[in-house]
Every structure is written in C-alpha cells, then in structure tokens.
Design brief:
This is Membrane-associated ATPase C chain. The chain is 89% helix and 0% strand. It is rod-shaped and about 65 Å long. It has one domain: F1FO ATP Synthase, CATH 1.20.20. The chain is mostly helical. It contains two helices and no strands.
Length: 83
C-alpha cells in the first residue's frame, strides 16, 4: 500500500512539474514578447533600417516557450504518457 501511494505521489509531482514548466515558460514568453514588441515598434518607427535586427530579438522569447514545452514533454514521457 505504501509503495502504491509513493508511486502516485511521484507521478503526481512529475505531472504538476510538467504543467508548471509549460505554464510559466509560456507566461514568461508572452510577457517578454509583449514588452519587446512595444519597444520594437517604437524603434522601427524611428529607424526602419533596424527592422531585420529587431526581428531576431522578437523571436528569442519563443525559444523560451519551446524549451518549456520540451521539458514538459520529457516529464510526461518519464511518467509514462506515451505508453
């Protein structure tokens, strides 16, 4: 009985960790992309030649969301989600 409870607790912790990893990374990516987007629009309005350089900075927060998704998937696979 104690082994079953320990197994459920560890699986539940991994599931919660996967949810937190995905949720917080998506939240951080959305916030930073919104902040960068506003700053980028102001910069492009003043200096249109900077548009290509700023595009790189706009894409970088998306990498954060992708890494969070990757961590969540790895935790889900550790639980046995693909079985």
């Amino acid at each position: 009985m104690a082994e079953a409870i320990a197994a459920l607790t560890s699986e539940g912790g991994l599931a919660i960790g996967a949810g937190i990893a995905m949720g917080l990374s998506a939240l951080a990516a959305a916030w930073s992309q919104g902040t960068l987007g506003a700053a980028a629009l102001g910069t492009v309005a003043e200096r249109p030649e900077m548009e290509k350089n700023i595009l790189i900075y706009i894409v970088l927060p998306e990498v954060l969301a992708v890494f969070g998704f990757l961590v969540a998937v790895l935790l889900w696979l550790k639980i046995g989600g693909a079985a």
